[in-house]
Amino acid sequence: MRVFLSHRTESEGSFARRLSEDLERQGIPTWVAPRDADPGCTWPQAVEAGMHACTHVTVLVTEQALRSRAVRHELRVAELLQLDGRVAIVPALLERVELPPLLRAVPGADLTGSYADGREDLVRSLRLAAAAAAPADRLVVHQVRRGDRIDLLAARYLGEPTHWRLIADENPGLDVTALEPGMVVSIRARGR
């Protein structure tokens, strides 16, 4: 599991960084801008690459975030990836606002009260979304993209970055330290 934190940097940036640190302390890797954005990419390219490296997109929902052009773009990309079965969207309410239809349709977390309770609610929602989306056992053929690493692929497809050895075992002769864009990697995605 790896979570893309969609937020409006100007208003929710410090909250996103705090949440990212807390999730990572609980063993849930995150992708958060601007920390993880490739400086050599345009913003839309960085967002798309970030989401492709994640299994979940958590939208930090505030009135300002929903009006933000960047967050609306991230929601459109997330929706396409969700339709393709590549990510699960999990909204996190920071304010009580009217949710767009996409976010109303999926279970989320309420962080409008106690931060600790809301964070635990989010962790539960993320894990439930991962369990619901996890197939029993299927072979996935992944074409390596720029920025892919063996631990990120393990987190995405196997639920834990430490399961990289399973990918290595599935691909004898693969140099896990030198994944190059265009390479094809077979991954036996197991139920989590």
In summary, what is this structure?
The chain has helices at residues 9-25, 43-52, 63-67, 69-83, 101-104, 115-133, 150-158, 164-170; strands spanning 3-6, 30-32, 56-61, 88-93, 109-110, 137-143, 184-190.
Q: Could you explain how this protein is built, in words?
A:
The protein has 192 residues and is α/β, with parallel strands linked by helices. The protein has 2 domains: 131 residues, Rossmann fold; 54 residues, Membrane-bound Lytic Murein Transglycosylase D, Chain A, CATH 3.10.350. The protein has 8 helices and 7 strands; from the N terminus they run βαβαβααβαβαβααβ. Strands 2-1-3-4-5 form a 5-stranded parallel beta sheet, sandwiched between helices. It has a two-stranded antiparallel sheet with strand order 6-7. Helix 1 links the parallel strand 1 and strand 2. It is globular. It starts with a strand and ends with a strand.
CATH architectural arrangement of the largest domain:
3-Layer(aba) Sandwich
Stretches where pLDDT is under 50 for at least 5 consecutive residues are: none
Largest sheet: 5 strands, parallel
Number of strands: 7
